[in-house]
UniProtKB/TrEMBL annotation:
It comes from Aquatica leii. Belongs to the short-chain dehydrogenases/reductases (SDR) family. Pfam families: adh_short_C2. Transmembrane segments: none annotated. Keywords: Oxidoreductase. PANTHER family: DEHYDROGENASE/REDUCTASE (SDR FAMILY) MEMBER 4, DEHYDROGENASE_REDUCTASE 4. One of its GO terms (molecular function) is carbonyl reductase (NADPH) activity. This is Dehydrogenase/reductase SDR family member 4.
Length: 267
């Protein structure tokens, strides 16, 4: 389900659009997060990647080194719900010189089922990771962004923010809430030359979405809702995030860009 045209588009990478920039990307050792970190580095940024497990960080660093990015990437353990871990990733950014770009990518979905059957524990955990941690990361990034005279904050939402998936009820609610967080934070920070935007991927070929992309009736139903008739690739999300991180988007703030192959995306 990956067309020749999509391959050609994802192969175009400006080489110095982010030269001198420093980025933090959470949950960035696999899938969309790793692709974002890689693309930012390919365009010239220094990037801090993170995962809850050191083994995942080490594996990702090896992959990125093999891609010729050894000198552009550092990694550390970070559970985004822990204040001391969030401090650690920003300390790593300080070692590189500061912070220009924050990409909040971490997300979780501990229970599958109808929304009103969701347990209180799963509700709290999903909101803590998908929404509260995103808010705290943005808040804690501000002093570093201000020191650099501005910067970029990006939240990774989901097509589920617009078109809820019945078995991902609370996940969908948190991803919709990120759209509101983006709007309010963007208004607050616009006078400080800090843009706040959101990216909402559709169904992307990752482990996280494998229940939708594996061959079978669920995949067939999902495909019927995608006008481009294919699932997305992580590089296609990374390209949009990198555009928002660059000066090409410096007059864009408070927006959500949907990367979904044409899936409906209106609240």
């Amino acid at each position: 389900m990956f067309s020749k045209n999509a391959r050609q588009l994802s192969s175009y990478i400006p080489k110095s659009r982010l030269e001198g920039k420093i980025a933090v990307v959470t949950a960035s050792t696999d899938g969309i997060g790793l692709a974002i970190a890689k693309r930012l580095a390919q365009e010239g940024a220094k990037v801090v990647i993170s995962s809850r497990k050191q083994a995942n960080v080490d594996k990702a660093l090896s992959k990125l080194a093999a891609d010729g990015l050894r000198n552009s990437i550092v990694g550390t353990v970070c559970h985004v719900n822990k204040a001391e871990d969030r401090k650690r990733i920003f300390d790593e950014a300080k070692k590189l010189g500061g912070l220009d770009i924050l990409v909040s990518n971490a997300g979780t979905n501990p229970e599958v089922g109808p929304l009103l059957e969701c347990s209180e524990n799963a509700w709290d955990k999903t909101f803590e990771t998908n929404l509260k941690a995103a808010f705290m990361l943005a808040k804690e990034a501000l002093p570093l962004l201000r020191e650099r005279g501005g910067g970029r904050i990006m939240f990774i939402s989901s097509i589920a923010a617009f078109a809820p998936v019945s078995l991902l009820g609370v996940y969908s609610v948190t991803k919709t809430a990120l759209l509101g967080l983006t709007k309010v934070a963007a208004q607050d920070l616009a006078p400080e030359n800090i843009t706040v935007n959101c990216v909402a991927p559709g169904i992307i070929n990752t482990k996280f979405s494998s229940m939708l992309t594996q061959e079978g009736p669920i995949q067939e139903e999902a495909m019927r809702n995608i006008p481009m008739n294919r699932f997305g690739e992580v590089d296609e999300v990374a390209g949009v995030v990198t555009f928002l991180a660059s000066d090409d988007s410096k007059y864009i703030t408070g927006e959500t860009i949907v990367v979904s192959g044409g899936m409906q995306s209106h609240l």
